[in-house]
Amino acid sequence: MPEIDVKRPQAASSEVVRDINRRIVLNLIRTRQPISRADLARVSGLQRSTISLIVEELIEENWVLEGPTGRLPRGRRPTFLRLNEERVIIGVDLRPIQTTVAVADVNGRFSFQEAMETPADPGRAMDELVRRIQHVVRLCQGKKIEGIGISLPGRYDRALDRLLFAPNLKWRDVDIRNPIAEATGLEVELENAANACVLAAVWFDRMESCRNLAAVTVSEGIGTGLLINGQLARGLSSMAGEFGHVALDPDGPLCGCGSRGCWEVFASNRAALRYYLETNAEPAGLGFLDLLRLADQGDARAARALETQAHYLGRGMRMIVAGLAPERIVVVGDLTRSWHRFGPVIESEVRAQVLPGGCPPVVVPAHEDGMARLRGTIALVLWNDFAPARETSPDRSPRPARVLAEA
């Protein structure tokens, strides 16, 4: 349901009702395509005349296309509807080592990807990113670009419109949205990578019925995105979910945030590499995928390093289980390629935290294609187009409210 601002109560106008009905129809087409008008009316409970008006509007806007006709024993042959795949979204997964720019259609199917090394200097990084995005825009000639979605390895404050906190990038107080929006003329949506993965899980993995969900992203650091009672949790200054920077051991290794012993210094990919090298030094020339490969080849030290990482991941998730009681925890990262190693250890640690009378959450890996963050950038833009309500940000023009699509 749309978020409600109790300080500015507003009765539901006929326009709001139309918007809600439009969202219902659009999401039914998205999740059940190809689907006929008659089936839309039957599943939605809306009158056929209402369905016809909404469908004609969506066709006129090029959101929906009419496809082949079906066959029935008698009566009119139904015409099936589907989303227009000529509407595309540009997705950007910004990470400390490598940034990926991609293009996907409204069904989340990717048609283009390219990667670039992420410059350490934010000014140089933004110049290069703008250049890459402009190149992708030129490649999309003839298609309708809905917008640009960007996942960030840190916290983006929507009120200030700045990336505030990205310790593994070592960037602070960086304006990412405006340079890209000015250079392309497109709407740009930004979100913490873990939050984007929450949206991807709900949008593309059909988890609409899950009202309490946590996404834990494991890479150079650890991020946590939270869905609470069906709403994406952001908190004060968009800092909700920073479990990766909760100290497990105040005397532990130094973290990029400036504190010591944070969860991510024990459970991130960098931590696993430290365990393998049996030193606190930064690994040189060895990557996390190399560590997975070594373990699969029988390297006992690599296997022990990954097991240690898995234990710390599970122990850190105990904070989430005890504090928020999620129904499901989705784990995102390269480690999902070796879920047979990580899954049982993490699940055992999580079950140990469940209090009497409680139920352990289901711990599942995201798709092992490594695309969860990019899918999140696509969902981030689609969230706007499929939302019925509008909110006005004090520093920006009216924009769609953040709501979950419940087909």
Global structural class: alpha/beta
CATH superfamily of the largest domain: ATPase, nucleotide binding domain
**Unreliably modeled segments:** 388-407
Intertermini distance: 11 Å
Mean pLDDT: 85
- CATH fold annotation of the largest domain: Nucleotidyltransferase, domain 5
CATH class of the largest domain: Alpha Beta
Widest sheet: strand ordering? 6-5-4-7-10
Shape: globular
Q: What's the oligomerization state?
A: single chain
Topology pattern, helix = H, strand = E:
HEHHEEEEEHEEEHEHEEEHHHHEHEHEE
Explained architecture:
This protein has 407 residues and is an alpha/beta fold. It has three domains: 14-83, Orthogonal Bundle (Arc Repressor Mutant, subunit A); 87-198 and 372-400, ATPase, nucleotide binding domain (Nucleotidyltransferase, domain 5, 2-Layer Sandwich), CATH 3.30.420; 209-365, ATPase, nucleotide binding domain (Nucleotidyltransferase, domain 5, 2-Layer Sandwich). The protein is 38% helix and 21% strand. Strand 11 (213-218) and strand 12 (222-228) form a beta hairpin. The longest helix has 25 residues, at 300-324. Mean pLDDT is 85; it is low at 388-407.
